[in-house]
Amino acid sequence: MADPDSRSVILVVEDEESYQDALNVGLTVEGFVVIGATNIAQARQLMTSAKPDLVLLDVMLPDGSGIDYCRELHDSTRTPVIMVTARTSEVDVVLGLEIGAADYVTKPYRLRELIARIRAVLRRPVACLDQEVACFGDLRIDFIRRTVTRRGLEIELSRKEFDLLALFATRLSQVVTREVCLDTLWWGLELSDTRTLDTHVKRLRQKIEDDPTNPRHLITIRGVGFRLDP
Q1: Final residue before a domain boundary, out of 68, 99, 122
Q2: Looking at the domain assignment, is residue 15 inside a domain?
Q3: Predicted confidence (pLDDT) per residue in 39-75, tens digit
Q4: pTM of the model
Q5: 135: which of 53, 110, 127, 207 is 20 to 30 A away, CA to CA?
Q6: Burial label, 10 (beta-carbon count in 10 A; 0-12, 13-18, 19+)
């Protein structure tokens, strides 16, 4: 059954006709609007004319590297990118994520899993719709450059730490449940296993709080989730 909230536009950049056709049918059935490009030149044109909500990007394309194009997109747009490729080495996966890809899926993949990952990425707070920077207390979050400064000094955050802080910051002073955190940033992680989430919250507190054991900003709402206060 199609998700009634799925009318997002997905740009599929894929030169293999079989994959392009299968994704067009499968994503359309799920309620997404699908546009296709077989090379980077076409993708650049569609990024301007169609303004997609998400890009599914193959790594090996006839007119260039998907890795390089992913880096280009990361530097110029807020549009999230999911790399879709036959390359499975850990080095390739890490490289794709480090240059800004929101997720990395290897071929062959299950369509249902890919759709779930697309929806999870679309729920992530890439940036506030009406602002590029959030400031509160002595913190400054730049959603576009993905940097955080505290009292003028840049804080080194991992990709997940930044995504978690951005999730809280786009819901400032609102309680974000554990379910939302896991569903948004750790697709597939069971709610019963929240050690990963707790570890990232602990690390964030160590980096943004004066006294991590008595936090002023990142507050735990016991049994529910977390709240980021200004």
Answers
A1: 122
A2: yes
A3: 999 999 999 999 999 999 998 899 998 888 988 887 7
A4: 0.59
A5: 53
A6: buried
